[in-house]
Amino acid sequence: MARRKRKQSLPVDPVTIDITALSHDGRGIGRIEGKTTFVDSALPGETVRFVYTQKRGKFDEGRAVEVLQASHDRVAPRCAQADICGGCSLQHMSPQAQIEMKQGVLLEQLQHFGALQPQEVLPPMTGPIYGYRRKARLGVKFVIKKEAVLVGFREKRNSFLAQIDQCHVLAQEVGLRFPELKALIMSLDAKNALPQIEVAKGDDSVALIVRHLEPLSEADQQRLQAFCEQHALQLYLQPGGNHTVHKVWPQGEERLHYRLPQFDLEMKFHPTDFTQVNQEINQDMIARALEFMDVQPGERILDLFCGLGNFTLPLATRAAQVVGVEGDDAMVVRGRENAAHNGLDNVAFYGADLTQPFDDQPWGQGGFDKILIDPPRSGALEIVSKMTVFKPRRIVYVSCNPATLARDAGELKKQGYKLLKAGVMDMFPHTTHVESIAVFEPE
Question: Is the peptide bond between 297 and the residue preceding it cis, with omega within 30 degrees of 0?
Answer without folding.
Answer: no
